[in-house]
Amino acid sequence: MGTSVTISTGTDDDAEQILKLQYLCYQPEAALYDDYGIEPLTQTLDALRAELADGCVVVARLGREVVGSVRGTVDADGTASIAKLIVHPRLQRHGLGGRLLAAVEKELAQQRSARRYRLFTGHRSEADLRLYREHGYAPVGTEQLTRRLTLVTLEKELATAQ
Prior knowledge:
By secondary structure, the protein is of the alpha+beta class. Helices cover about 35% and strands about 35% of the residues. The protein has a domain at about 5-115: Aminopeptidase, CATH 3.40.630.
């Protein structure tokens, strides 16, 4: 490809590329749970823009193309909620998800005073669970949303951040 993947803060100008990538990346997840009505597949551009304006977004770029993204917010008690970590399928399994996760954790701690991190994934999403555990996250709870889907919530304290 000739160009290195760079990690940087995302902006509203990235919204359309993020939404298209999100739609692509969540197809396998929807198939895994047989639910194509999941929020990442139904989110509108306006809703995404509002999310980006309220939170922190980190993107991975290959040239001008957004090939990865992750978002986060921090609540009043310092808990950062990390969501929608996505990497283009052609770039998965090369460490980019971990780089994005580390970048958003750093940004949330430095710019928004995060003291702990929380995220969730589906119970069958083994690659996601493995990635999060490798980065210091531990399961703290589960919630059965439907007959087919149980969400696993994972957390880690800032002191264990990489």
